[in-house]
Design goal:
single chain, Beta-Lactamase, Heat Shock Protein 90, five-stranded antiparallel sheet, 11 helices
């Protein structure tokens, strides 16, 4: 079955007119038949109620004298009413109403009088039942119940429905014939316009014009369509002229694009080199800081070893001269133990620093995935940043589950934390200003949420919008390269396959939310 939108317009007009007419006629016919059915049924009820009232008057004497034979003869006169199936006369006494006399037509012998008369008139599919009281004076002495069939009602309804159906079909047929005749005034101009449109679209010749048919909406549509063709024709001529000029400009732009691509390639290479230089500068700063940190325990160890050597020479000299006393020996042993503890403790401290630096340095130059403890690695990163943080009044708070492990690129994590911390040190606080750097790590079902924040001076909205752009910095003249947060963005989104967002309010600090897969 074709969709309504795909059928020809002539058929659409026919369907619209005939369909609307048919629906209206069917609704009207249905309302007429239903109304007539209820009207006839109400008339039958009124007629039967009148008959029941007459018989209630005529049977008053029979009930009062308790003459059942007279009552039966009286009820049998209903035989003239062919639709009456049965009549029942009830007598009222002190205990209620009881059947006194009954009349039943032969084909209604299957019906039975109810034990007590109904309280009101009732309808069913095939029967109409009427109840009327029998009054003597002001006293009710009984009731008469009459039941009639509704076959005549249904027969008249069928006849009326047939007649109405024939009239509806005849009206639909006439509407169809008139629609076929009148619809050409609507469809023919549209079909002609469609033919012109096909010629224009097939041949691409905009000189064709449709013939106007009148001053109605369709005629106005044809006039406007012809005006549109005229405009298209003039613009097509101009377009041909512009096309030749465009081809020349395209050829020139191709040459310019080639030069731009070469310049862009050089720019990307320069940018990558600057990013790598920034990473190496960060690693160089890490080397200088760790070297300074290692120098302290090593210096203390050397001093302790020198002191131990001088005391050993003094003790050995006393021993050769035979002047080494028990108290001197005990003193020498105490100095040895103290020096050994000092040397061992500072060498262990230096070894921890070297191990931390070695791990972080190797990771920063590697892009390999490995499983590592996140809390321990963050601590090692901050250990390498300790020389830079020592010159500030900033406290560091780390909230992370020590047992949390992830399979990721540790070098990227180290560079992210380093750049975030150094960005806060350089931009969020004035020199000597107190503050707090916080890192909170939350474990999600399939991701890790790293929340980094500082309580510094914050950033205005225009700075927040550009903070991840390469080479954007607010300290251009103070040594800022503008690559720190850009490196953080690239590491999180490209290498770690995560997301990073930054929020900041001027005067209320900044926060960075990083989500990476576990």
């Amino acid at each position: 079955m074709l969709r309504l939108t795909n059928i020809p317009i002539r058929l659409k007009v026919l369907v619209a007119i005939v369909g609307t007419t048919s629906i209206c006629l069917l609704i009207t016919a249905l309302v007429f038949v239903v109304y007539n059915w209820f009207s006839v049924r109400e008339t039958l009820n009124d007629n039967l109620s009148a008959v029941a009232e007459v018989f209630s008057l005529n049977t008053t004497a029979a009930l009062s004298f308790n003459d059942a034979t007279a009552a039966s003869e009286m009820l049998s006169s209903l035989q003239a009413k062919h639709e009456v199936l049965q009549a029942c006369l009830y007598k009222h006494d002190g205990t209620g109403q009881h059947l006194f006399s009954r009349y039943a037509r032969d084909n209604g012998s299957a019906l039975r009088c109810p034990d007590t008369p109904p309280s009101k008139n009732t309808y069913s599919y095939n029967y109409l039942e009427v109840v009327n009281p029998v009054i003597l004076g002001n006293e009710r002495i009984g009731s008469i119940y009459i039941a009639r069939g509704l076959s005549d009602l249904w027969a008249s309804t069928r006849v009326e429905s047939t007649v109405v159906g024939i009239m509806v079909l005849a009206s639909i047929a006439m509407a169809s014939i008139l629609s076929l005749f009148l619809q050409r005034f609507l469809s023919n101009p549209i079909v002609a316009l469609l033919g012109t449109i096909k010629k224009v679209s097939t041949a691409g010749d905009y000189s064709h014009r449709a013939t106007p048919t009148g001053n109605d909406e369709i005629g106005e549509l044809i006039v406007n369509f012809n005006n549109m063709l005229s405009q298209i024709e003039s613009k097509d001529i101009a377009l041909e002229a512009a096309r030749a000029e465009l081809e020349l400009r395209i050829e020139q732009s191709n040459k310019v694009n080639f030069e731009l691509e070469r310049a862009l390639k050089r720019l990307k290479e320069t940018q990558e080199q600057l990013v790598n230089n920034e990473k190496m500068a960060s690693l160089g700063g890490l080397v200088a800081g760790v070297a300074h940190e290692i120098n302290t325990p090593v210096g203390i160890g050397v001093t302790a070893a020198s002191t131990l050597r001088e005391d050993t020479k003094s003790a050995f000299k006393l021993y050769d001269e035979g002047e080494l006393t028990n108290s001197s020996l005990r003193r020498y042993f105490g100095i040895c133990m103290q020096a050994t503890e000092i040397i061992l403790g500072n060498l262990q401290r230096a070894a921890d620093l070297i191990h931390s630096f070695k791990q972080v340095a190797v990771d920063q130059s590697s892009s390999e995935y490995r499983v590592y403890e996140l809390k321990k690695y963050i601590d090692e990163t901050f250990l390498s940043l300790k020389p830079k943080l020592r010159s500030t009044n900033l406290n560091v708070e780390i909230n992370c589950d020590p047992s949390l492990t992830i399979n990721s690129v540790p070098g990227a994590m180290s560079q992210i934390i380093t750049n975030l911390v150094m960005n806060s040190v350089h931009h969020a606080y004035e020199e000597g200003q107190k503050g707090c750097l916080r890192i909170v790590v939350e474990s999600l079902p399939e991701n890790i949420l790293i929340h980094y924040s500082d309580d510094g001076k914050g950033m205005p909205p225009e700075v927040v919008a550009k903070v991840f752009d390469p080479f954007f910095t607010t300290r251009r003249g103070a040594g800022g390269s503008g690559l720190g947060m850009h490196i953080v963005y690239n590491l999180v989104t490209q290498q770690l396959k995560g997301t990073v967002k930054i929020r900041s309010i001027l005067g209320q600090g900044s926060s960075v939310h990083i989500v990476i897969p576990t």
